[in-house]
Amino acid sequence: MTEETPVLLAVQDSLLSGADLVEKMRTAAIMGFDAVELRSGELLNGGRLLLREIGRLPLAVSSICTSPQQDPVVQEREVREARLATWRELLHMAAELQARGIIMVPIRRPHRLPDLSPLYTSAELELALLYRVLDGLAPEAERLGVGLWIEPLNFYEAMLVTSIGRAVEICQRFGSPAVRLMADTFHMNIMEPDPLGSLRAAAPYLAHVHLSDSNRQLPGRGHIAFRDVMATLAGIGFAGSMAIEAFPPADLETATAESLRYLRGALAEAGGEY
User: Residue 112, class by beta-carbon neighbours within 10 Å (0-12 exposed, 13-18 middle, 19+ buried)?
Assistant: First the structure.
């Protein structure tokens, strides 16, 4: 992403009311969001409606968040090939919707590849397979102008990529402009000794941020200081996108709107211009 690309403040579709994705996008537009992050399952099930509505959609699509059913590092060849076919379909859908990127969690607990020590440990084998997966997807992502964003999860949910530093290493080693990382404030709160320092260190590769409070609730309902997060992102010249991702509350529309107001306030306090 270039420095001239405007930062989008988005919300995941699970936090919006509406009978279908287009209605949810209308809800987000009324609330004042810049964009919507779509979940891959919703997109694959109902995305043809969106593709037919391109040009009349009420809001931009910032990103696509995949599910465990799309994690590409999996032992069974048939399952892996089916998932990679889904990834290629998502890349083309993302390009049609002008989404900036697709979020990738390589592998998450309880799944592990076999330990083949002394040839390969499980982690070494998983990492090698991830690079082969990226070999197959990155050229198409580059051609389509869609990012592949590696997401670190906390140690209770994953083992291969659990820190921003590890995701940076993958981006550096792979060396594709399409392969970048995203940061999730909830996971950072658990895993990063210095969350703001981790954001600064990841600046060259940081493409997207999930905004979620310390308790996985909407921003403003936990103890993360989002003003400091916003100030740090502004300080590094972050030009990616941000999306609220949280457990859906009972008071869906009211709570999501309140969280947006809270984040806009944090941006204002931080001096951000997003």
Answer: middle
Joined together, the tokens standing for residue 116 give 């083949």
Task: Report whether 227 contacts 196 (CB < 8 A).
Answer: no
Q: What tokens does 162 get?
A: 């659990």
Residues in CB range of 152: below 8 A, 6 or more apart: 158, 161, 162, 163, 164, 166, 167, 181, 183, 184, 187, 191
- The domain in which residue 259 lies consists of 8-270
Under 8 Å between Cβ of 244 and 16: no
Total of domains in the chain: 1
CATH number at residue 183: 3.20.20.150
| Cα distance between residue 111 and residue 78, in whole Å | 16
Q: 1: pLDDT confidence band, cut at 50, 70 and 90?
A: very low
Closest CA to 207 of 172, 175, 182: 182
For residue 208, the cross-strand partners are 182, 241
Q: Does any domain span residue 239?
A: yes
In-domain check, residue 29: yes
Report helix, strand and coil shares of the chain as percent, to nearest 5: 50, 15, 35
Phi, psi of 179 (to 5 degrees): -90, 110
Q: Per residue in 145-193, pLDDT tens?
A: 999 999 999 999 999 999 999 999 999 999 999 999 999 999 999 999 9
216: left (phi over 0), alpha (psi -120 to 50) or beta: left
CA distance 133 to 111: 17
